[in-house]
Specification:
This protein is mainly α. The chain has one domain. It is built from eleven helices and two strands. The chain has a two-stranded antiparallel ribbon with strand order 1-2. Helix 3 packs across helix 8, helix 4 crosses helix 5 and helix 9 packs antiparallel against helix 11. The radius of gyration is 30 Å and the shape is rod-shaped. 26% of the residues are buried.
């Protein structure tokens, strides 16, 4: 009964592992809000650039360019400059500000959905790694119990033989027990870690790694935010993530074999592969870093929103 129960439990664990590993996150983050944002670039030193930089900070303007709000911001800033302090706010100014805040709200939906896609994939990788680790621990536990059982049987059998003055047979019983325990130990050391077929056809890591011109996974505003350098002398967030992931991949491949390195690139940044628990943990770490950058987008969006609604200080 115990063997049958263990067999059924192992089958259930395998079924759960396969189901989790193949359960892709079906979240369309390419345009969830229904509004397609078109990022715009401010020309450094232009009249619009100088006008907006006197009113908004670098992080707010970066988000405004990602969402494509620079033209509206220019119009609103010009109205602010002509607004008299003793006159009520014009209806056109209020309409522009309302339009800006509405579009920022829609942008927030797109950012949240992109972050949810990455978070779902990260949690799936972590859960699959946990199931693989449990499977490996269960195998090691069975082998440990078997080794202890063999050792105990050998000791008891040799003791009984010694009581009956069969010392030579008892010695051979001791040797057999030691060989059995040693064989299980060697077998445990030579065991390869369990793997699972893990698919990710819509791979958010791939586009960051290959630095494609356009994205089929992320909305335009998110892709602009990730790929545009924060300043003229700094790298983009995508480039920074690429550098971190190169380090993770190199640490994961201690042998340093170029062929193996290529294979791992396919595993992490392709459509799927067979993963070990350790490799899935590395993938989850990459996804976690990407998710953090997406969550930080909300900070810049909040900064821009606060700068829009705060009173203008004429200079």
């Amino acid at each position: 009964m115990a063997t049958l129960s263990g067999c059924l439990s192992n089958r259930q664990a395998m079924s759960t592992l396969k189901r989790v590993a193949s359960d892709n996150c079906h979240i369309d983050s390419s345009g969830t809000s229904g509004y397609v944002f078109h990022p715009t670039n401010l020309v450094p030193g232009s009249a619009d650039d100088s006008l907006l930089r006197r009113r908004y900070g670098d992080r707010g303007l970066r988000m405004a360019q990602a969402v494509g709000l620079t033209n509206l911001l220019v119009q609103m800033t010009q109205l602010e400059q002509h607004q008299q302090t003793d006159q009520p706010t014009s209806l056109r100014y209020l309409a522009l500000r309302q339009k800006l805040t509405d579009q920022l709200q829609l942008a927030n939906f797109d950012i949240a959905t992109a972050a949810a896609l990455v978070d779902c994939d990260s949690k799936r990788a972590t859960l699959t790694a946990t199931l693989l680790t449990r499977r490996e621990n269960s195998r090691e536990k069975r082998m440990t119990i078997s080794a202890i059982t063999i050792g105990a049987v050998a000791v008891i059998g040799a003791s009984l033989l010694n009581l009956h003055e069969q010392h030579l047979t008892a010695d051979w019983f001791h040797i057999a027990g030691g060989v059995g325990e040693g064989g299980l130990g060697v077998l445990a050391l030579r065991q390869k870690p369990p793997r699972a077929e893990y698919s990710h056809p819509r791979n958010p890591l791939r586009e960051i790694w290959t630095h494609t011109g356009t994205s089929t996974v992320f909305p335009p505003l998110v892709w602009y935010y990730l790929t545009k350098p924060q300043t003229d002398n700094s790298q983009s967030l995508a480039d920074a993530l690429h550098s971190r992931w190169e380090l993770l991949v190199s640490l994961d491949e201690k042998a340093g074999n170029s062929r193996k390195h290529k294979h791992r690139e396919i595993a992490y940044f392709g459509d799927g592969d067979t993963y070990t628990a350790e490799e899935l943990t590395v993938r989850a770490a990459m996804l976690g870093q990407l998710e953090t950058e997406l969550r930080l987008m909300n900070n810049d969006l909040t900064i821009l929103l606060n700068e829009i609604v705060r009173p203008s200080v004429k200079r």
